[in-house]
Write a structure and sequence with these properties.
Largest sheet: 5 strands, parallel
Number of domains: 1
Radius of gyration: 22 Å
Order of helices and strands: HEHEHHEHEHEH
Distance between the termini: 65 Å
CATH superfamily: HUPs
CATH architecture: 3-Layer(aba) Sandwich
Number of helices: 7
Strand content: 5-15%
CATH class: Alpha Beta
Helix content: 40-55%
Shape: elongated
CATH topology: Rossmann fold
Number of strands: 5
Structural class: alpha/beta
Length: about 220
């Protein structure tokens, strides 16, 4: 009898382990798509290109501007990092990401007078959204379109809600030309890095932003 009870307990334990393994596998398989949460388009005060993945975010912003969704495109200036300092010491010209984004916008038909560079420089998504929210409130705007990578939309939306709230409203749009496959993210080393970065970033955000940019 004791042997039978032990056998039944082992079977129950194996079933629980199998269910947990299946749930984990399902979650891992779908986490890439879960991270992608764009919003329906609405007319807004401006379109903002969040830093990263040039030229695809700027390309999307130019397309939205030419469709008439906002009268301006805002760019963010990155705070000088270790690489910038190293290039400066070497005397090697090193255009910033914002410089490239501005050239992409102008090449695609966005007039220079419709492009604004927000100051001061930012270090990460948290500082970017804080700056955008402050500028939007200063101008009395009620909506802003944020353009970012597909898997970065969920974290950007969470940070906006945490820092800015429901008003003004952020409309998250993804860079549709960016080469990514969130439905099969495990097949590409770049997608694996991106998804892992976003998952860890969301954990950090839910913990209260305990991680800080390197100084």
């Amino acid at each position: 009898m004791a042997f039978k009870r032990l056998g039944r307990r082992l079977l129950v334990l194996l079933a629980i382990v199998a269910l947990m393994a299946g749930a984990t596998l399902y979650a891992l398989r779908h986490v890439g798509r879960w991270l992608v949460t764009p919003d329906p388009l609405q007319h807004a005060r401006a379109i903002v290109v969040l830093s990263g993945v040039t030229p695809f975010r700027a390309m999307e912003a130019a397309d939205l501007y030419l469709q008439g969704w906002a009268p301006e495109v805002w760019l963010l200036r990155d705070k000088n990092n270790d690489a910038d300092a190293a290039f400066a010491r070497l005397g090697v010209e090193h255009p910033s990401e914002q410089d490239y984004d501005q050239k992409v916008l102008e090449r695609l038909g966005v007039p220079s007078q419709a492009i604004r560079i927000l100051e001061p420089p930012t270090t990460n998504t948290l500082s970017e959204i804080s700056l955008i929210g402050d500028e939007l409130r200063r101008q009395g705007g009620d909506k802003i379109i944020l353009v970012t990578s597909p898997v970065h939309t969920r974290r950007s939306k969470f940070i906006w809600q945490h820092v800015v709230g429901d008003h003004p409203q952020a409309i998250l749009r993804l860079a549709s030309a960016e080469p990514t496959d969130p439905d099969h993210w495990w097949r590409s080393t770049q997608d694996i890095q991106d998804v892992g970065h976003e998952v860890l970033g969301l954990i950090d955000a839910h913990l209260g932003f305990v991680a800080h940019p390197r100084k």
